[in-house]
Amino acid sequence: MGEMNTWSEVDGYFNSRLLPADPVLDTVLDANAGAGLPAIDVAPNQGKLLYLLAKMKGAANILEIGTLGGYSTIWLARALPEAGRLVSLEYEHKHVVVALDNLRLAGLADKTEIIEGPALESLAALEARGAAPFDFIFIDADKPNNPHYLKWALKLACPGAVIVADNVVRGGEVVQADSKDDRVQGIRQFIDLLAAEPRVEATALQTVGSKGYDGFVLGVISG
What we know:
It comes from Paenibacillus riograndensis SBR5. About 45% of the residues lie in helices and about 25% in strands. It is α/β, with parallel strands linked by helices and about 220 residues long. Strands 3-2-1-4-5-7-6 form a seven-stranded mixed sheet, sandwiched between helices. Helix 7 (about 145-155) links the parallel strand 4 and strand 5 (about 155-165). The longest helix is centred in the first third of the chain and has 17 residues, at about 1-20.
């Protein structure tokens, strides 16, 4: 517990210095909690990292797999240029309702679209309607389907697109080859696919902080 307290204090220090006060995002987190959504949003400094990565990329067409209450959606959408668009996929109707309200509050409803339903079906629908190519893809949904999400990301991305996948360390459990947790096995299969995929240059980073011990994958699709 001592380590966790230290990690949270360090996050608080950096956030207080490097993230200006943001009443909109504070209200969004309060709305998520009030609606009973699980508190599994990215941490504020991780949200800003997503924002900075998308901004550095110059992303104009972002795909997010897993909306929850729209907290990470708002961070990513804020990085878009005036004519940019973000599509987010969410399975739970309750989450969609909360996220739509949050996006309206943030003034981003005109730049964002949330598609409700199983993500694998929504991804196929996106391909059918010609919504691709996406230049930034954030994967943060049900981990057993991460291998399938990667395959779709490769289909729907443009050359040079950035892929970020969250929660890939799972408190260190990712190293357990014999894990009975299908989330861990989904991450391991996802990593194996990345390792064998010549079109993607990727790395993974471990993180500690207010959300505990975890990490993310960062990759770039080659031309």
